[in-house]
Amino acid sequence: MEHNITLDKYVDSRGRVKIWPGKEKNRLLVLSYLATKFEPEKKYSEQDVNLILMGLIDNYVTRRRDLIEYNFLNRTDDGRLYWRSK
């Protein structure tokens, strides 16, 4: 239950991230939420990833990098394909 209370601070009723958390543990919570918008085992183009994230958060390019950096998403070396890793 507390998980949802914390997430509600950062995500509005439409599912968009309204505030980016300052603390890393809360950033990881929001990144985990964003990762759930990608189907496991499905491959996505960079454009597809951008479109999904655009609907959820304003700074989608930085958040895409964060998803990769924190291993919520993986990508091919050439950056053409992305997939959910967690």
TrEMBL record:
- Start and end residues of each DUF2087 domain: 16-84
Under the heading InterPro entries, the entry gives:
DUF2087
A matching Pfam family: DUF2087
Name-wise, this protein is DUF2087 domain-containing protein
